[in-house]
Each structure stands twice: as C-alpha cells, then as structure tokens.
Amino acid sequence: MSHNVDVLRLTREVVAIDSVTHRSNVAVADFLQETLEGCGFEVERLEYLDREGLRKVDLVGKKGRGQGGLGFFSHCDTVPGTGWEQQAWSPEIKDGRLTGLGSCDMKGPLAATIAAGAAINANQLRNPVFIVITADEENASLGASHLVKASELFRAAPPQHGVIAEPTRMIPVYAHKGAALVTVTARGIAAHTSTDKGISSNFIIAPFLAEMAELARLTKTDSSFQNSEFQPPTLGFNMVISDDGCKPNVSASKTVCTLCFRPMPNDRSRHVLETIAAKAAQHQLEVSPWVAEPFYVSPQARIVQTALRACGLPKAETVSFCSDAVIFKDYLELVILGPGDIAQAHTVGEWVDTNQLLEATQVYGQMIQMLCAE
Predict the structure, then answer these.
(1) What pLDDT digit, counting tens, does each position of 148-158 carry?
(2) Which domain holds residue 79?
C-alpha cells in the first residue's frame, strides 16, 4: 500500500520539534518513527547515550524485501537557534520559502525522502527502500558511527546504493571535503608579572605559531596540497588561539591553538598532519588530532548517473562541506543530493525553497523506480 505524504506539511511538523544536537532528540525520533511506521516501513530504533549522557535515537526504516536496494540518509539534529529574533521552531511558508531552524539542514530534505518512500507500494519493489535517520551529525557524526555498529537491519543487508540528502540545490554531488581539527596545547606557570616568576604559555607556543603561519602559506601556494576538482581548491587552513582571556599582568598558564583544515582526495593532508605533530613535538607541546576523511565516488558510478538522469542534469559537482557520507561510504555506493542551498544552513532565518522540496520528492521517487522497481 502506498501513502500520500505532504512534504511541506511534514517539513513544518519536523522543524517545529526542537532537536538541537546538545539536547536529546527523543521527541523528534518518536514522531519520525510513528510517521515511518504509518507509511508502511519496518522501523528499527537504536538508542544510545551521547558524551554528555543524553539519550539519543537513530532510526532505520525499511520497506520491501530482498537484497540491495536504495537508502536515503538524513540527520534530525540541528545547530543551536542562537540569534533568531523569531521563534526558531515556529516554521512558516512565505514567498516560496519555508523558514525555520533546520528547514534546510536538513529536516526539509529528510521530509522529502519520507514522502518519496511513502508513495511507493511495497509490492512494487524488487529491492528494498531504506530511510535512515541519525542523531548527532552536527556532533562529529556520532549517530552514524553508532548506527553502523548497532543496527541489525542495516548490517544484515545494507542497501547497495544510497543518497545523502544534504542540501545541494538538487545537483548531484560525487565528492566532498573532509574535516580535520588539531588541538595543540602549551602549559606555563601563572604568576603576577610583578614577581617575574611566571612562565607564559603564550611565549612557549609562539615559535610553533610562526611555523604554522608558514605551513598555511605553503598550503595556499603549493599545488600538491590542492585539488582542482573543488572550489576553492585549497585546504582552508585556519588557526584560532585561546589563553582563556588571561590578564596582561599575569603570565598565562595555558594556551590552546586549534588548527582546522579540510582534507580532499589525493591531496597532501597526511603530510600536513604529520608536520603539525612533528613541530609540536619539537616544542614539547601537547597534540590531539581529530580527522574525518573526505568522501569520493567516481562520477561514473551507477548511483551518480542515476541521480543525474532523475534530475535531468549532465554533470555532477563537488562541495566543500562535510556529511555523514564519511561514515556510510564504506558500506555502499553514495551520492549527495538534496533540496536547499548549504549557504542557508546554520544561519538565522534559515529557509528552504518549497519548489525544491516538491522537486526532491519527485526525483527521489524516480530513483526508487530506477533502482528498486524496474
């Protein structure tokens, strides 16, 4: 049996539920589980506690039997609603825009995947359709990491192909940059400057900072650190520094330098990480790295070509933002494709184009027909 789901109404209902990533997402997960079950999906609920001890929920919905098939992957958490003058969780539609926190990233795209999956009758499927909804994408993809380890439904017979429904203006994307954060810490001895007995951590770390400035220059001028498939083709090497607002008449006891850059396929990101670690060791500084690898699939891959045909477009693109694809890419062939513009994500007054939500529902439905029903 098929079900008719109004994608605009569903988007508004999901946006209206506060699911900021540093709070529990149980309320929105409960609503989405009920929605999926009402649309004929078998649903697996996966609960875990995040790093702060908050209860989080991932969902895996499946319609149809057999092996392979097509999965749609979305996250239900959002960034905080900081700076919103109007209520972030009171969505409204005006002038072709649906406004509300998470409407673009990515509750609108999520709603489109559910509407497309609901419209297909399970009896028409020769391969199954999956709707995968994760928590904590905005927190280092913790939900996706938990799901691939804990889900019996996903691990027993994962889909062969998948769509990460992040906003791409409905242009298929075959690659995106990763993310790297390296925290480097210097420790000194705090003392009032009148005693001259302190050791400033800022002075300790200063030579290292100069070396990082040179490394940043190198990544912007040496083409071996770049990838022309992306715009911009550079790593976006950045550095921020904190000594916890130490007063000028006190020697800083701790200085933290955080280095951030975006690894790309076939660049020299590994060399950058090794250089940072080696320079920090020379100055006896503490180092703590975190890396999310970039995502890449051949532009000729079946899922990319299927997405292009469904969208009526000749060529796929690359993007600079990161997604849960870094977790799911080891299990199936993926394309990134969704309504909305990433430029609207994480902004005050976030919105998604209503016509693109309707278009996405149709495109996803065509892809289901191509990969699961024909």
Answers:
(1) 999 999 988 99
(2) 7-176+295-373
